Amino acid sequence: MTSGPWPGPGPAGHPAAPSLGVEEEFFLVDPGSRAVASLGSQVVARARAAVGDLVSGEFDECQVEVKTPPCRDGAELYDQLIAVRGAAVAAARAEGLGICASGTPVILGEGPAVVGDHPRYRAGLDQFGALLDGFAICAAHVHVHVPDRELAVLVGNHLRPWLPLLVAMSANSPFLDGRDMGYASWRTVIRARFPALGAPPYVESLDHYERLTAALEETEAMLDARIPFWDVRPNPRLPTLEIRVMDVSVDVADTVALAVLIRALVVTAGALVHRGCPGPQTCGELVHAAYWRAARDGWPGKGVDALTGRILPCSVQAARLVEHVRPALEEYGDLDLAVGFLRRLAERGSGAQRQRSWSRPRTPGAAPSAP
Asked: Which pTM was predicted?
């Protein structure tokens, strides 16, 4: 692995790893009714006194986003997430609210949605109209430092087949307004309604990528070619590759484990690109089907292995992922974090499973308890 694009010495006997960071989105909820509450601007204003712009608004006023600065390793990332989550929780509590980690709103509030005050959100409403109805959803985004954009888009080719597994492992949105939707990640289903959102296409080069995004912007299927909403994208402002496919998680340790797994996947892919491997040209329809199956069944169900088209247990696919990236995990001292995450999934289930287990027995039409 040291011959890849991120060489250099690092601490604790491990080579220097590319930095990584995380963005997480959360719902603001009323502690009594557990319905979402549209007070995002007030909560953000309070939190900024403690952590500046590491807490910000989101598409809907019932949401807030927390973000970490670039981190060197999983331990630093864990501490940063605890700090920014804590700032958001404290600010929400000062407004009489709580924070809910779920990919979809478990219980909706009364009245219409209140869209956040951002030019991009307003432009999206103008362009996509009713497609954005009910688009209050919460994700976790992982950023991994990548030296250049050409490498970033080619790494994306290698990540495409693994994205459905990341959906299944992070699935945490079975409910929408008190209804069990029958899917582990209903957030993934909501996102699938858009014409240029989901897994990125296979591209041959950065030039190919930029021509494609420009063409999609021209068709108005994409809002801005510089900021595509694909689940893997070179960040338009930062030297990072951004992976956006996961539901937000309740457990900080799970978020950290997913982040270091993704970093290992990016580094492994980068080494393959440097050896001249452009990545598997996995059929887009097969990837789309794998997304759907992962969203429906989640962990510990079976899913589509987009590399082969075979139906395999998610646990088998996850074990294959760890083996695929094991050299990078070992190189950066992250193997125990990844293995521990798989052990927790096996023992306690996914976020979707836990949401369902936390929901109170109820009569038809009654809402579940919020996590």
From this structure: 0.91
